[in-house]
Amino acid sequence: MAKLTKRSEEEIQEKKEGKWLPYDILAGIPERIRKDAVRDRTLSEKARAEMMRDALLIQLLTTLPWRQLNIRQCKIMPFAQGGNLHKEPIPASSRMKCSSWAEEALRANPAERFWQFYFRAHETKAQYVARGPLPGQLVAPLEEYVARYRGVLLGERPDPRTLFFNRNGRPYNRKAIRRIVVDITMKYAKVRVKGQSIRDIWAVKWLEDHPGDDLTVMKTLWHRKIDTTLKCGAGFDESHAAVRIEEWLDARNRRGQEPDASTRDASRLSGLLRELEHMIQQCQPKDVFNAERAEAMRTDMRRIAHSLVKCLE
Questions:
Q1: How would residue 49 be classed by pLDDT, with cut points 50, 70 and 90?
Q2: Burial 217-233 (b: 16+ CB within 10 A, else e)
Q3: Which of 46, 74, 133, 181 has the fewest CB atoms within 10 Å, i.e. is most exposed?
Q4: Phi, psi dihedral angles at 75 (to 5 degrees)
């Protein structure tokens, strides 16, 4: 039975390997889509709008890797009306963290509006309440999509109020949104990557760049338990650990070949003391009656004393 379980785990891992892309390649796809949409003059306005929608979709997944359910059902409308994505003021009593540029804007105008997301407990898989500011990198693409392309895709059909919708003007179902993501990654990277895999890819990349920061992964993926987060980041495996060890040892070796800060300071301090001692020895009684010489030596001594103080700080 143990062998069967082990074999199943290996098969799962092999299956994931076939649907894996380095994060940097995945995150570069939206810009490639936009360049293609602008470059191809033969595209109809609707075809160009679809490409811009695809670019926003992948950028959203690689920035805030939400579950496909929340991507599909995300409504652009005021929170008070049940919306999930909207530009509105931040309540004065809110504990929500803001970027430095947003804090400056709030100081200038407490009623300033910002793009925010808000999913209530019944709208998330883990009964998780998620609210936060939309990262600045998503604001311009979102506003461009909403202002220029969403209406083109909708046409004369009734507005479902969701961020994305199918050609019938209805919210995407699970299979449809998965197919879009797979088709995009297959076209631009020759790998069939699904939305859940993108969440794993994001988590692994974050941990590579921010070792030990499982809390950010947990909050970004809306997990209630850290165990769930650790499983999601399972792509961060023994190979990543081995590379970290190699980088750690290289850094230690480089530090061992160079004098550390305390050694450098001690050496500098010793040199300054020798220089000061030499100045004192040179200061003969006859120099006291030489005003110009005495002033020059006092200047040099003040310089050395200042440097000594800096070394001792």
A1: very high
A2: bbebbbbeeeeebeebb
A3: 46
A4: -105, 135
Residue in the block written with tokens 């979709």: 57
Tokens of 300: 């040099």
Residues 6+ apart with CB under 8 A from 111: 89
DSSP state of 117: E
The distance from CA 83 to its chain's CA centroid, rounded to whole angstroms, is: 25
Burial of 271-284, coded b for 16+ CB within 10 Å and e otherwise, reads ebeeebeeeeeeee
CA distance 248 to 137: 32
Tokens standing for residue 17: 């390997």
- Predicted TM-score (pTM) of the model is 0.71
The closest of 3, 23, 12, 2 to 185, measured between CA atoms, is 23
d(CA 32, CA 178): 20
Choose among 30, 127, 116: nearest CA to 74: 116
Tell me, what DSSP letter sits at residue 121? G
How far is 59 from 119, CA to CA, in rounded Å?
Answer: 19
Is CATH 1.10.260 what the domain over 21-192 is classified as, yes or no? no
- The residues facing 11 across adjacent strands are none
How confident is the prediction for the chain on average, in pLDDT? Answer: 81
